[in-house]
Amino acid sequence: MTQNEIENENIITLLDDDDNPIDFEIIEVLEIQGKRYAFLLPLNDEEDTSEEDEAVIFRIDPGEDGEEIFAYIEDDDEWEMVVDTYNDLLFDEE
Predict the structure, then answer these.
(1) Are strands 21-32 and 68-71 parallel, antiparallel or unpaired?
(2) N or C: which terminus of the chain carries fewer CB neighbours within 10 A?
(3) DSSP-derived secondary structure letter, 66
(4) At a CB cut-off of 8 Å and minimum separation 6, what does 59 contact?
């Protein structure tokens, strides 16, 4: 396995609401209360000079064919639980 293949293992491409592909780096996957959550960092184009993007969080749901479906977290309580758990892990590591 080459270094480029290793780096690409953490890169996924998702489609936005207009079916435009967006590349993300997977920075963390956590299991919380039996569900998996992915923390993704959007990868900017080299031409993009905007400020640093913030990570986005998706719940990873199982699809019918065993594929992983990245779903928006629409419940505020679920969102807060995931963010709080992630922040607790970050502060524990420091």
Answers:
(1) unpaired
(2) C
(3) S
(4) 35, 36, 37, 38, 70, 71, 72, 73, 78
Asked whether 17 and 36 are in contact (CB, 8 A), the reply is no
pTM assigned to the model: 0.76
Short-list 73, 63, 66, 1, CA closest to 32 = 73
CA 42, CA 26: separation in Å to the nearest integer?
9
Number of H helices, E strands in the chain: 2, 5
- Per residue in 1-27, pLDDT tens? 333 444 567 899 998 889 999 999 999
Q: Give the integer Cα–Cα distance in Å for 72 and 58.
A: 5
Q: Which two tokens stand for residue 17?
A: 């609401």
